[in-house]
Amino acid sequence: MTSLFDSFSLSGLRLPNRLVMAPMTRSRAFAHGIPNASAAAYYAQRATAGLIVSEGVQPSARSQSNPRTPGLHNDAQVAAWRPVTDAVHANGGRIFAQLMHAGRVGHPAVAGHHPVAPSAVALRGTVFGPEGRLPAPVPRALSTDEVPGEVRAFADAARRAVDAGFDGVELHGANGYLIQQFLSSNANLRTDAYGGSVTGRIRFAVEAAEAAADAIGADRVGIRLSPGGTIWDIAEDDVPQLYGALFDALSPLGLAYVHVMATTEEDLLVSLRKAWPNAFVLNPGGQIAPRPGDRQLGEHWLGLGADLISYGRSYIANPDLVERFRAGLPLRDADPETWHQGGDTGYLDFPSHQY
């Protein structure tokens, strides 16, 4: 049986084990989307993961969601990321940048730009502001002529990611952000080629993947998806049909992997795994799970055909998660109050176990 500790070849990139550090917003960046210098130590501490996927990185100035998140849309940001990727590589690791366009999950007080989305439909609830939660604004609907510009933002950021030393990129198509907004049936009310039918609703995701693949090579591009996920007030009709069509459209591109969250029935996820020709990453935690994923859940999904298992919250307080799983050691918990508070507390103060 496949083990979490078996090696794996990801488009020619040798991973020493099957654990992936999932992307997690940590809100430690400086102003103007510049990664904090402490990010190099944070990611390097976790370099024993088979693969690290960075926190969500905005591909354009107006695509920012939370305060204090980093970008990849100017030269200063690229320069600030290089010490981070260098530190991961020096510790023997591999790291992809997650490109995250917030769409309607943003606020002018954070990004300095009014959010754009498939349709002028505000999410029900609040979004993160500089000093706390703010009512979600009504986004401006993108015109048909503007949509290709948002697609290009992913390609441009992918090129910058490679310039910054990342081994590849992951497009964030999950958790209610722009790509999933196009997939959805409540945030996307369009009647042009980017809405309406299943074919229309998947078009933006496919074009973004194609553009990133053309920019840096398909073998350096992954995409994260949350079939049926409802975070940020998202609804999706006909989930099996929608994601079946999306997988069919993405499969010929030769992407490095698809990263799927356990947000729908197990049988559907297994059928999607069988339909996917390349590496399949499964995050067993679902949406906001009552507990972080553990070794047992990971091994369960490996047995169902997943190639790699991603862990998010378990990596916050356990930079040596691979070693803890291997030795059967207990996992530490991190205080949720420190997840997004900034500073090094709850960020760099989790030493590895002393054997």
From TrEMBL:
InterPro entries: Aldolase_TIM, OxRdtase_FMN_N, Oye-like. Residues 4-331 form the NADH:flavin oxidoreductase/NADH oxidase N-terminal domain. Pfam families: Oxidored_FMN (PF00724). PANTHER family: NADH OXIDOREDUCTASE-RELATED, NADPH DEHYDROGENASE 2-RELATED. This is Alkene reductase.
